[in-house]
Write a structure and sequence with these properties.
Elements lengths: L1 H12 L3 H43 L13 H19 L6 H4 L2 H21 L1 H42 L4 H11 L10
Helix pairs in contact: 1-2, 2-3, 2-5, 2-6
Length: about 190
């Protein structure tokens, strides 16, 4: 879906097909890379927030009533989800717990977690970055080859026109003079 949207937008902005393909590949690769980094950043930030919320509740004695009983794995997973939601709400000052809304340590921990979560994938995805650069270089080389092919085809076509004219019985001088006179009618962007 995003690929088609990118292609449509590029088609509207530029008529150069080769450049559009290169730009499309570049935008798709950057988008997938940013998406992966964003997810890691959010999960690391949330994890730090959960730890901070649990620490805060532990300090206030909210877990004293659990005793040795503890909680089961299903309830623990549900609690982790709720703690993540609570941490993110508190980060933006929207939690029901005013103590968490004003907890600067929570915000610092989540900021550090988000920063580490953003940096970690960059270091771990050096191969992906290299692949993006190689794709870009490959697209640029392909553009040059295609352009050279068009240039060669144009030259061949012009030569065929010239040879057809001389083979039809016209003299070389006649064909040369005719071509020179045609140059005065040439539109901009047309090569000799």
């Amino acid at each position: 879906m995003a690929s088609k949207t990118i292609a449509k937008a590029l088609t509207k902005t530029s008529g150069n097909i080769g450049k559009n393909i290169t730009r499309k590949h570049l935008l798709e690769n950057i988008g997938s890379f940013a998406k992966a980094n964003g997810i890691t950043m959010l999960s690391e930030r949330t994890e730090e927030g959960i730890q901070s919320v649990v620490g805060s509740r532990y300090q206030r004695g909210e877990y004293d009533k659990l005793g040795e009983k503890g909680i089961g794995p299903v309830r623990a997973a549900a609690e982790a989800g709720l703690l993540g939601l609570e941490a993110n709400l508190a980060y933006f000052g929207l939690s029901n717990d005013n103590y968490l809304n004003t907890d600067e340590e929570l915000r610092k921990a989540m900021d550090i977690g988000g920063f580490i979560g953003f940096i970690m994938p960059i270091a771990g995805n050096a191969v992906k970055i290299k692949d993006i650069v190689n794709q870009y270089a490959s697209d640029k080389n392909m553009n040059m080859l295609v352009a050279k092919g068009y240039d060669n085809a144009e030259k061949d076509n012009k030569m065929d026109v010239f040879l057809d004219a001389t083979n039809s019985g016209k003299g070389l001088k006649y064909v040369t003079d005719y071509l020179e006179s045609m140059k005065s009618f040439k539109q901009s962007g047309v090569t000799d």
